[in-house]
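Researcher: Next sequence.
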Amino acid sequence: MTVNDQASPPPVRPAFDVVTWKEIAYLLSNLPVALIGFVYTVVMISTAGGLSVTAIGLPLLACVLYGSRQLGKLDRARARGLLGVRVDEPTPLPGPKRSGGFFPWLWAAVKDPVAWRTVLYELVRLPWGVLTFTVALTGLFVLWPVLPYVVRGLANVDRAMVRGLLSPSDELERRIAALESGRGVVVDTAAADLRRIERDLHDGAQARLVALAMGLGLAKEKLLEDPEGAAAMVDEAHGEVKLALQELRDLARGIHPAVLTDRGLDAALSSVASRCVVPVKVSVDLPGRPAEAIEGIAYFVVSELLQNVSKHARARGASVEVWRSQQRLLIRVSDDGQGGARLSGGTGMAGLAERLGAVDGVFVLDSPEGGGTVVTAELPWRDRA
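Model: Next structure:
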């Protein structure tokens, strides 16, 4: 959504105030700036179009459109400084990883509406830049008495062009595209979770149960010949059964804990906190229970963050706060450890950020060196059916 500092253009004053001089500077700078943008756009778009039949055509076009985005950023900054027009910066295009691979990213970059509207802006601005430069320069010597009125009218046209072509009016489409790319993250995460469960079953409980079956088979063979040896083997098998059951419970807890289903986030997060290696204070203030999917994501986010506290933080204590603010579920997990956590630090933070982003969530990490770590997460609130 576009945010303007001024709901309407400033009133015309028959005097050369600061606003008028800034507008004159903007109009005089239109020509050189427009010339650079026009030449870049025409030359690069033509080159990319001519190479479109080759393998480098589309990647080159994507790079050219990225450059157009940067020109638009500079134009917004110039309008902000000289015309007082402020518009939100468009949402950045997600990288190849977030887009699901190189080719989905390439296609998203080529059809980027923000970049194409900037291309249109650069093309129409050259003749307009010639006109405004000529009028403003001539007006300084010829039209001095009425120059504030002329300058204000021309500057208002520029304001309209910036708002119309450089503002993120396609934010809804961008958000839809971001959510579509997030579906790939969800699919990849689900596949990784299934592989993890399969690996844990194969290497853990399954292997233990196979060994248990073999042990019981040997005990059966020795039952008549060596009753004491058979009894010892049965005792050992009993211990293996207990370990297998514990592994299965841990695995089931990692899929979806029963305490979360039965008693909600407060009890489930308290259970997670009790297994942390440092004391954890849990505070859950919710008017009700959110939808099961949101509740599950919140649980696993906190679980992962407390595992990081146990493994990496070297903290003396931690806290977990969960509350609702309007239509958002907010989570804050903090510790007094060594800090220095990064999204790229191999602690799973990047994965958590991707999971939250895929469901229209927000993940904010604040972890200065030696200053502890605070993670704030937001999820959309949906009422339980």
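Model: DSSP finds twelve helices and five strands in the chain. Residues 171-222 form the longest helix (52 residues).
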